[in-house]
Amino acid sequence: MTLKRSYHCVYDTHYHMVFPVKYRKILLSEPIVQKIKEIAKEIEERFELTIETIGCDSDHIHLLCGFHPKYAGGDIVRMFKSITAREMFRQFPDLKKELWGGEFWSDGYYISTIGERGNLNTIKQYIINQGKKPEEAQLRLI
Predict the structure, then answer these.
(1) Of the candidates 51, 71, 73, the residue with the CA atom closest to the CA atom of residue 62
(2) Any idea where the domains of the chain sit in the sequence?
(3) C-alpha span between 95 and 102 (Å, rounded)
(4) Which pairing describes strands 15-20 and 110-113: parallel, antiparallel, or unpaired?
(5) How much is the pTM?
(6) Nearest to 112 by CA among 33, 7, 13, 10
(7) 101 with 89: CB under 8 angstroms?
(8) If exposure means fewest CB atoms within 10 Å of the residue's CB, which of 10, 60, 106, 132 is most exposed?
(9) Can you spell out the DSSP letters for 72-121?
(10) What are the pLDDT tens digits along the chain (142 aa)?
(11) β partners of residue 21
């Protein structure tokens, strides 16, 4: 267990977040995913946020992250979605043609806490295997 220390608290938080692309469009190609990961590193440095794993399928993204308890999960989702969307439209202007509403991410999201006794490694493997074919991700018995 890795404890993080702040001025007035000590914490160890883990959250699994999922949010889809608007209209569930299949837009998360390799260059877009790489740019999202670069932006995520910048977000990590700017805010008290640790992104442990990012996994992308073709139409949604999974984050495994931890952040200071002063933030609500919805605050982190809103911040991550707004910053990445703004940069995606700036870096890839053709995306606006695919997303006629001017939004990159869907309004909804999923968030789950991962407790100290929960299986963090299982969720981490699940996120890492996003977008892989089932035969690549599943272990086979011989």
Answers:
(1) 51
(2) 4-137
(3) 9
(4) antiparallel
(5) 0.80
(6) 13
(7) no
(8) 10
(9) -HHHHHHHHHHHHHHHHHHH-TTHHHH-TTS-SB-S--EEEE--TTS-HH
(10) 578 888 889 998 999 999 999 999 999 999 999 999 999 999 999 988 999 999 999 999 999 999 999 999 999 999 999 999 999 999 999 998 888 878 999 999 999 988 766 677 778 888 888 877 766 555 556 5
(11) 105
Which helix H or strand E contains 61, and what residues bound it? strand 60-67
Closest CA to 73 of 93, 133, 139, 81: 81
> Backbone phi, then psi, for 23, in 5-degree steps?
60, 15
- Per the CB < 8 A criterion, the answer to whether 4 and 11 are in contact is yes
* Domain boundaries 4-137, corresponding CATH code: 3.30.70.1290
Instruction: Tell me the two tokens of residue 44.
Output: 């990590």
